[in-house]
Amino acid sequence: MAEAFKLWVHPFSAPPMVSKPQIHTFPSSFVSARHRTILAMPRVHSNISLSKNLAAGCSEDYDEQQRQHQSLLVEAYHHTNSLKTLLAELSMKNSCPIRLLERDGDWLRDQLWVAVRFLIEEERPVDALKVFDAWKNKDSSRMNVANYSKFIRLLCDENLMDEAILIFQGMEKHGLTASLTLYNDIIHGFARKKEFDNSACFLKKVVDAGLQPMAETYHGIIRAYGTCGMYDELSKCVKQMESVGCSPNEVTYNILIVEFAQGGLVDTMEGVYRTVLSKRMNLQPSTLVAMLEAYANLGIVEKMEKVYHMVMKTNAYIKDTVVRKLAAVYIENYRFARLEELGNDISARTGRTDLVWCILLLASACFLSRKGIESIIREMKVAKVEFQVTFVNILALFLLKVKDFSKLDAVLSQTGKHNRKPDIITVGILFDACRIGYDGTRILEIWRRSGFLETEAEMRTDPLVLNTFGKGLFMRDCERIFSSAGSNLKEKKHWTYHSLISLVFGKTVD
Question: Start-end of the PPR repeats (predicted)?
Fold first, then answer.
């Protein structure tokens, strides 16, 4: 295994270059565009003069299309450059959008919206309001529902509700009627800011305006209640929705499942899930992932497995945080074969990421399989995987577990040099091994000479490693001493590996 590890960590030699046979071809410039067009046409037995006329016609059409295409490209290029120039000018210190507008005389719609979006994102909503007013006042036709609605939507997206209401009131003064979509944007904006009274006020305005609220109108409120953990209010919102004749649709039920799942309300989540099944509705892939994470959080293995298989039949993206939760459940329940399958399943979707290599190494380590670990290390060498302290610590912990000190020494000796920095877990492995007969003097000397021991202590190992092997005696001693230490020690901001080692072994730390 040590030999396999050395193969992995040492630099890779470049494969020999294999020369390819040269195929000589004539440059395309030797053949005119017209001739290429003719040669590309299928050969048919017809009158020669007719063929020439057809070829000439095709060539002329082609040239005209090329000219039009070139013209469009040039136009798009200049338009893009003008937008970039405008953004650069707006980015300057003390830039004044009104002056830029007056200097240019007027802006196209694209220029206005680029400027407005930039100003809003840069937290300059007052400038955005002023330049919008100046632009629309240049042409009375610009004072329309579409322009007001777009501006209000941009403000709502950034939760700038005070400014959004100012524009909305200006819209009403000009006798313009808001659409249900615009009301939805405002209702959802207030809900995201947890201003539910204002959301309710605009929900009433929808009815007063003679509009019928749709399921989408309530979706933003439902999400906001879920985010705030206000599940009683969420349920009341659904009942209110039904009371006004607005039936929950497929999207509504998916949102409910996600919110209850994220809140850990598994029984309620399952109730909504059964409703979806009874109504023969579809579950969105993201909804299934939320259910999967809920079961993983609670360690409900059987239900987690069932939903996992459903997720794998979709194209759903599973975040690394969720993958780690699944792996932790398998480790805690000693389902190491399923841990390995998880690694292979995720690999089929994302490729062999660092997390996948970590899971596969841990699975082999849990099986105490030397052959399995050596096989994975060979794969990592072929894939030219970069050094990661997580991988080194998995190997070291495995060798410590089987008490193979000679190979443990070979693994640890590769750390602390060639920019291969260990971490606090590696240090803990060394001292835990010393407690049961390992001589770590040489490794400590390597670390001392490299200056590693004087660097700030940190943990860069994937948490799954601790889930698998647990915390060693050194790490537990660190935690015990810190928990009982005085305020002076706890307030110390920077701890080096040397100072931590001194603390654990009872030496004075300044």
Answer: 144-178, 179-213, 214-248
Q: Give the whole-angstrom CA distance, residue 125 versus residue 151.
A: 11
Residue 290 in domain: no
Cross-strand bridge partners of residue 456: 496
Q: What is the C-alpha separation between 366 and 317, in angstroms, rounded?
A: 27
Instruction: Tell me if the pTM is above 0.85.
Output: no
Q: Quote the pLDDT of residue 453.
A: 94
Q: Indicate the burial class of 397 (C-beta count within 10 angstroms; 0-12, 13-18, 19 or more).
A: buried
Residue 396 in domain: no
Give the whole-angstrom CA distance, residue 91 versus residue 168.
28
pLDDT of residue 91: 87
Give Cβ neighbours of residue 444 (< 8 Å, ≥ 6 apart).
Answer: 430, 453
Does 161 have pLDDT greater than 50?
A: yes
State the DSSP string of 2-15. HHHHHHHHSPPPPP
CA distance 71 to 420: 55
Q: Indicate if the pLDDT at residue 280 is higher than 90.
A: yes
Q: How far is residue 363's CA from residue 335's CA, in Å, rounded to a whole number?
A: 9
Coil/strand/helix, residue 496: strand
The count of domains in the chain is 1
Q: Is the pLDDT of residue 372 over 80?
A: yes
473: domain range?
404-510
CA 102 to chain centre: 41
Quick check: is 165 in a domain?
no
Length of the chain: 510
Closest CA to 396 of 380, 372, 383, 415: 415
Could you give the CA distance from residue 109 to residue 86 in angstroms, rounded to a whole number? 13
Whole-angstrom CA distances from 335 to 329, 367, 398 are: 8, 10, 18
Q: Judge whether residue 12 has pLDDT over 80.
A: no
Q: Is residue 442 part of a domain?
A: yes
The predicted structure's pLDDT at residue 420:
83
Q: Which residues contact 492 (CB under 8 A, 6 or more apart)?
A: none
CA distance 407 to 411: 6
Task: Output phi, psi for 415, to 5 deg.
Answer: -90, 160
Report the 3 state secondary structure along 88-146: HHHHCCCCCHHHHHHHHCCCCHHHHHHHHHHHHHCCCHHHHHHHHHHHHCCCHHHCCHH
How far is it, in rounded angstroms, from Cα 345 to Cα 340? 9
Question: Residue 190 to residues 166, 224, 461: CA-CA distances in angstroms?
Answer: 14, 9, 42
Asked whether the beta carbons of 221 and 199 are under 8 A apart, the reply is: yes
Contact 156, 188 (CB under 8 A): yes
Beta-carbon count within 10 A of 171 CB: 21
User: Cα 235 to the chain's mean position, in Å?
Assistant: 30
